[in-house]
């Protein structure tokens, strides 16, 4: 029932039903429109069907797609769907998806799940992350942390070969990873994604070593792969809530050394 809020779940007997992974090879580029439209349609249907007893914009929760073993899909397709699940913002709620909340599940990969690796058996962690979102969005607990760290500001220090990323909240670097961050490096009218190592970090920021890029750095991304990490072993989490930093991609809007830029959204 969706009287107070709705949590969007799929039927295990019908993997892929409205859940996203089926769109990897079917209208993938439209999912940033079709998924918000599905939420809007459900809200309108419940509101009219209950003769106005259900709020017109009732809170709506969903689970971002978990991990898929390599070879099932190309390495770029599933991350695109995860991104499109947020209407290309990287987080919810946002301007296109108001009053929504999301459980990140990319760190819950389950190689031996009888339902397939994208359907992890650890439903308790998924439920915990959803309930935090419900408390914050549906019940208005203002000081509650309900999502992992999100990039807030970028500082390009080209002369030092560094890209500093400041986060909106504290971060816990659980482990250093030389491949989970990537930069788009362009030279001679061609761009390619290069993995970059984490250099240094503090309580709310980290620096990436971008010296491998000999051209123009135009974008960066995090966890842009079908299987970003093993079970609860992604590099970045919020220190107290154990919530993982979600996958993210952003353009770097200015190439001047030392320029401070907000993340492109």
UniProtKB/TrEMBL annotation:
One of its GO terms (biological process) is carbohydrate metabolic process. InterPro entries: SGNH_hydro_sf, SIAE. Transmembrane segments: none annotated. GO terms for molecular function: sialate O-acetylesterase activity. This is Sialic acid acetylesterase. It comes from Rousettus aegyptiacus (Egyptian fruit bat).
């Amino acid at each position: 029932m969706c009287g107070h809020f709705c949590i969007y779940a799929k039927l295990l007997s019908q993997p892929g039903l409205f859940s996203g992974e089926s769109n990897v090879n079917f209208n993938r580029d439209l999912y940033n429109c079709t998924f918000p439209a599905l939420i809007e349609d459900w809200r309108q249907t419940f509101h009219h069907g209950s003769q106005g007893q259900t709020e017109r914009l009732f809170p709506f929760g969903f689970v971002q797609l978990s991990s898929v073993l390599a070879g099932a899909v190309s390495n770029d397709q599933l991350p695109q769907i995860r991104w499109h699940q947020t209407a290309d913002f990287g987080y919810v709620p946002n301007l296109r998806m108001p009053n929504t909340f999301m459980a990140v599940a990319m760190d819950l990969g389950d190689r031996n799940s009888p339902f397939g690796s994208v359907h992890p058996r650890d439903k308790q962690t998924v439920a915990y992350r959803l309930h935090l979102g419900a408390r914050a969005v549906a019940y208005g607990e203002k000081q509650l942390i309900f999502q992992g760290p999100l990039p807030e500001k970028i500082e390009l220090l080209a002369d030092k070969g560094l890209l500093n990323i400041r986060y909106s909240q504290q971060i816990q670097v659980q482990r250093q990873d030389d491949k989970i961050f990537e930069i788009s490096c362009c030279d001679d009218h061609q761009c390619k994604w290069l993995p970059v190592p984490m250099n240094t970090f503090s309580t709310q920021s980290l620096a990436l070593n971008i010296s491998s890029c000999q051209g123009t750095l135009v974008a960066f991304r995090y966890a842009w792969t079908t299987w970003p990490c093993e079970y609860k072993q992604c590099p970045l989490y919020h220190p107290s809530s154990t919530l993982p930093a979600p996958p993210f991609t952003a353009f770097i809007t200015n190439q001047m050394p030392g320029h401070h830029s907000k993340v492109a959204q």
